[in-house]
Design brief:
The chain is built from five helices and two strands. The protein has 124 residues and is mostly helical. The longest helix is centred in the middle third of the chain and has 34 residues, at 55-88. It is elongated, with a radius of gyration of 18 Å. The N and C termini lie far apart (52 Å).
Length: 124
């Protein structure tokens, strides 16, 4: 089984539950692929209790986990400030995409967001 296939199965495990893949995990490649696709925290959530996780993989995934929590906290703070400013100005808006979808994940910071999207009515 390829590392890509393992990653897909592990991401599904993180969101839906389920067993680990039967074959030995390709840790180095899993960490590389998860970083490439910005899903390190989601991968860590799926494997955090695996005793056979190499120290290097655990350190890399834990670092990403902490960074993602900090990023999500900053984004949530910014989104709240933006929404308050828009409301105070009487602008009609709606939060979109990741800002809403992140609450469908087991933990909000597992949904990587690089920006915050709002729909603002034309003319506002």
């Amino acid at each position: 089984m390829s590392a890509s296939h393992q990653l897909i199965l592990l991401l599904r495990r993180a969101v839906c539950g389920g067993a680990l893949p039967d074959e030995p995990l390709q840790w180095k490649e899993l960490v590389r692929l998860s970083a490439l696709h910005k899903v390190e925290s989601l991968l860590y959530y799926a494997v955090k209790d695996v005793e056979e996780m190499p120290d290097e993989a655990q350190r890399a995934l834990q670092k990403a986990w902490v960074c993602d929590i900090a990023r999500d906290t900053r984004q949530e703070y910014a989104a709240n400030r933006i929404q308050a400013s828009l409301q105070a100005a009487g602008v009609i808006f709606a939060p979109m995409k990741g800002l809403l979808l992140k609450y469908d994940y087991p933990l909000p910071h597992l949904r990587y967001m690089s920006d915050i999207d709002f729909y603002i009515r034309t003319g506002d």
